[in-house]
Each structure stands twice: as C-alpha cells, then as structure tokens.
Write a structure and sequence with these properties.
single chain; alpha/beta; disordered C terminus
C-alpha cells in the first residue's frame, strides 16, 4: 500500500530534512525549509526483466563540431560560445526587471527569420508579450507564443505536429507537474519540471532556454540544484542605476566560461556595446589621484577597467572598508601587504573602492592596479597618465606574472595608451615577454611601484621590508 508522508526541503540548496527547523543544516540559510508531501512506495529491486546491452566505442576518433543556431546578436552568441547548439539546454538567471525576458524575446525574434521558435510564458499573458514586442519593434516577427504552466500540456504540444527548433520557458519557477503534490516553485517541482523538459529537448533535438529567478544573494533560486542538468548557465548582471547590463557565462559545455556580453538598456530594448573598454573607463580628461586603469580579461576578451579608491581619516572606532565591484577580503590583503612590506599607514583610515561601470572584477591580476590606486590616493599624487597596470601580489610583496599579457597590451595599445606597468618576466625564454608599442615598466616588488609616488627606497635582504617610511 502506498503511504504518504511529509518532508522538508530547503529551497536554496535542496537538502531534505525529516522535521522543520528555522535554519537549514546543510547551507545555513534561514526560513528556507518548505513542507512537501511525498508518496512512499515499497522498495523493489530491478525484478526479473533483463536490460539491453549498451554499446561502447573507443575514445579515439573524429567528431564533428556541433551545429550552431546563430541569433544574429553577436554579444549573445559570444557568451553562448558562438551560437545555440542543437539539443542543448540553457539556464538564464538574473534579478527581476534586469532584462531577461527582453533579451530572450529579441533573440527568438532574430532566430525566427530562419528557424521555427516558440516562446512559452508562465508569468505573462500573450497580450503582455505582444505589447513588449510592439515596443521593441518585433511585432511582425514569426514567433509562436503560448501562456502555459503545466508541463504535461507543454510536452504534449511539443510532441505533436511541427516541433519548434528553439523553445523559451519563462520561467521555470512557474511550471508544475500535476503528479506532484508540492507547490509550483519548490525544489521538487522545479527540478522535476526541468528534467522532463531537458529530456524532451535531447530526444527531439530542439534548443531549450529556461529562465530562472534569483535569491536575495544573487544566486538562481531553486534551479541552483539543477545547474548540473543544463549545458550552459548564464547570469544577467547589472545595477538598476546603470543603463548597462552584463550577460556572463558561468558554465558552458560548448564554449569558454566567464565570457561576457555587454548590453545597453534603451527604450528600444537591449543594444550591443561593441567596445566595452570605453564603457568601464571614466572620461574625466585630466589626472585624478586614486584612479588607475586595469587591463583585465573577461573570458577571452581583454577589457580595460578603471579602479577608483579614496582614503580618508576615519571618525569611527573601526575604519570602514566599502567595496563595490571587487572582493573586500582581497582589498584587506592588499592593504596588509602595503603596510607590512612597504611601511604605508593605511589601516587607520577609511578606504573606499569602486570599479567603474558596474562591472565586478574577480581575477587576482587586479591586485597591482588596486595597490597603485591606493598609493596614489594616500599620497595625493596622480598615477602616471595613459598607463595600464596589471599583476598579482603575493603576501611577500612580490609581483607575480599573470596570463594573457599579450592580449592585455594589445587592447591598451588599441585604445591609445602609451605606458604599462607589468610584472617582471621570470621566464628563461627571452622571447616570453610580448612585443608591444607601449613603454613597458616591469616591477618585481611593491617597493618599485611605490617609487613612482615617492623617492626611491631600499629593500632589506632578509624579509623584503622597506627601510624608511612612506611620505606622501
């Protein structure tokens, strides 16, 4: 006899608990356990029925590259790895109102010129989608619309007749399977619904794009536990105060991860930004202390980013560390190295750091640019003009080399920069340092960097400390 029982499932991590508690024991989130009714079947083995023999093939051999369906939106295709792969599943997440539905409607409208596409919405009525399409100038495109939330109805409709080649599900949290007693949006419903849709897409060969909401922490709600099921995970980032949006790939089985696409939100929808470096640099026209240009890498694309810092005396017992667009723990490490290895007195001051343009930088190569900006802000001396900086800082104060040096320098040259401060090349190969039209200054220790803002200092041989105190 089938028995019904209750279990409590965390809506953040999917952990299952036998009883309710205010805090999830697995991920530590509060008030995320939701009761779900399950049916318990008596445990059964495989039974007498025999399975079919699977076929093994050798690893050696040639395989063709998967065919791509090009949307025509170059920034979107770039993040996807060159276009949509037949039979693949994509998950797109982002804050409410960030532009997920807008960019996907623009993408399917462009795809509709050469493919059969369908847009299934569980949040909006068909008339609402038509109003948005009219505002974007896409009302004349051949996109098939539907408003549905039942997975059973959706699968039946996709199986019958001419199956679309690209299907949008907006959003996966609104979908439900009637055989489950849990409410739509719960982990069980989201995971099972996505599994059924992805299985159908693999079997019929159409591309499916799932839209997911995010939690207050910026993570995809519910579908976080199903990220391993999809082929590509895209996050739509951006601040509401900025008109620019960044589409970032955090997982891609058919292309590079951490690739970004940059868009500008306008009254005609999301427009592509072909030169992101100009977006992330302020055009102030004169030297300002505390501002440094960092040559970074986002995916396979070199991007120049302006890093701004401000150091001011604190009026509180504990100095503030306000960071926008960078890791606050990384900033604390750079400040500690500057104080311990170079004798700078920063710890008693408030430190504010901002990455211009709303981009979030995560690579360690930004350490040297942040240190340059801090030294400039503390001394009141502007960083060298028309100069890009990049390099990783170790706890000893040494500057470590980073990857893609040639691409970073080429991007700086293209945008008119004339100087670069880079880590010293420790490679035995003489040709390891890329040739560039820039005047390159190689630094091995932070003391060499600080000489730009202070008369030269001597470094002791024992532990790398600088003799004398930094004078701004």
């Amino acid at each position: 006899m089938v028995k019904k029982s209750s279990q409590y499932v965390c809506q953040d991590c999917g952990a299952i608990s036998a009883k309710w508690s205010g805090r999830c024991d697995n991920c530590g989130a509060w008030n995320t356990l939701v009761e779900e009714v399950t049916t318990e079947h008596a445990p059964r083995g495989l039974g007498p029925k025999k399975g079919s023999k699977i076929k093994f093939v050798p690893l050696q051999g040639q395989s063709k590259a998967p065919p791509r369906r090009i949307t025509g939106i170059s920034e979107f295709d770039r993040v996807c790895g060159g276009g949509l792969v037949q039979g693949s599943a994509l998950l797109v997440g982002g804050d409410p109102g960030i532009g997920k539905s807008t960019i996907l409607l623009q993408a399917v409208a462009s795809l509709a010129k050469q493919f059969h596409v369908a847009y299934i919405s569980g949040e909006e009525a068909i008339e609402q989608i038509r109003i948005r399409a009219e505002r974007l100038g896409l009302v004349k495109t051949n996109v098939q619309l539907a408003a549905a939330t039942s997975i059973r109805d959706i699968i039946t409709s996709l199986n019958i007749g001419d199956t679309p080649e690209v299907v949008i599900i907006d959003s996966i949290q609104t979908m439900f399977i009637d055989s489950l007693e849990s409410a739509p949006g719960t982990v069980t419903q989201v995971r099972t619904s996505a599994q059924e849709l992805i299985r159908l897409a693999k079997r019929l060969g159409f591309t499916i794009i799932l839209v997911g909401h995010v939690t207050k922490d910026g993570q995809i709600a519910g579908p976080r536990v199903m990220e391993h099921m999809v082929d590509t995970v895209l996050y739509f980032e951006g601040e509401r105060s900025h008109q620019f949006r960044i589409l970032r790939a955090v997982k891609n089985r058919f292309g590079p991860t951490d690739e970004i696409g940059v868009f500008e939100m306008t009254d005609r929808g999301l427009m592509e930004v072909n030169n992101p470096s100009s977006l992330f640099m302020s055009d102030h026209g004169r030297d300002i202390n505390g501002a440094t240009v960092f040559a970074g890498i986002e995916g396979t694309r070199p991007v120049l980013i302006e890093i701004q810092t401000l150091i001011s005396p604190t009026i509180l017992g504990t100095p503030r560390r306000a960071v926008v667009g960078w890791d606050v723990a990384r900033l604390a490490m750079v400040i500690a190295v500057l104080e311990s290895r170079c004798g700078l007195a920063i710890g008693a001051n408030d430190v504010y750091l901002n990455v211009a343009g709303g981009l979030r930088v995560s690579e360690p190569a930004a350490d040297l640019a942040v240190a340059t900006s801090l030294a400039s802000s503390l001394s009141g001396i502007s960083a060298p003009s028309e100069t890009v900086v990049f390099g990783e800082i170790s706890l000893s104060g040494e500057i470590r080399p980073v990857s893609h040096t040639d691409a970073r320098l080429k991007e700086a040259t293209k945008l008119g920069f004339t100087h670069a401060i880079v880590p010293k090349n420790r490679s035995k190969n003489k040709g390891a340092t890329p040739k560039s039209k820039l005047k390159i200054r190689e630094v091995e220790h932070l003391a060499e960097l600080l000489s730009l803002f202070n008369p030269p200092t001597k470094r002791t041989k024992d532990n790398g400390h600088v003799e004398g105190k930094y004078n701004g």
